[in-house]
Predict the structure of PHP domain-containing protein.
Amino acid sequence: MRIDLHSHSSVSDGTQPPADVVRRAHAAGVGVLALTDHDTVGGHPEAVRALPPGMTLVRGMELSCRLGGRSLHLLAYLFDPGEPALAAERRRIRDDRAHRARGMVERLGRLGAPVTWEAVQRITGESVPGRPHIARAMVEAGVVTSVEAAFTPEWIGAGGRAYVDRYALDAVVAVGLVRAAGGVPVLAHPRASRRGYVFTDEEIARLAGAGLAGVETDHPDHTAADRAHLRGLAADLGLVTTGASDDHGALTGHRLGAETTAPESYEALLSQATGARPDRAPAG
């Protein structure tokens, strides 16, 4: 059974609707898929309805956090979506995302880039606006030639000319909120240096002390050396190791199932969840 515990749909910054993500995962041989859109659970109902016979969906999200002044992403699985404290933080983060996106479009305009808020809204649709949506609007407007080219200091890369900072939870607080909601927190891509997500062993140990359950070791942005080191660190800290594609549809080359989680790691995560259970479609 192939288990992919990190994927995105068009409800956040992926390019495919949740139903399409599920169908593509099934076609790729994935038997268990976690849908982990950024700061939202809005795609889960559609994904559950689209489950092929015998396939399992793990409801999750990727929570925007901050640690040591840097952006950190926390995967949260099988929490109670109605738990008030975590639900309130999700709303605050989503509201700030829209405010932030408008701010970046305004800065792009002052830089002479013909990107309109209407174009960003059209690309975003019903999802939460984010930098990937703005980047796609920049490509459409001819400002840059690719989405990747937008994520530079010249444009909307971290600290860039059109970059606007955002609200994010303190990572230690976020771990506690996920646990209080019955969920299981796992640190996403902690050695993705290409995207600036690099955290020290000491920082990961601090999160483990706060209740972190696992660390995403097998990720497309991690080198073989990264993976080996993280596995050793996880063993020392008593953390579960996971693997996942972090698929964003066309933006990442439709790579569902490219990285997977071992069944025993998946079961270890399930054993810690009290907020919800996976959704499994009856076998045909």
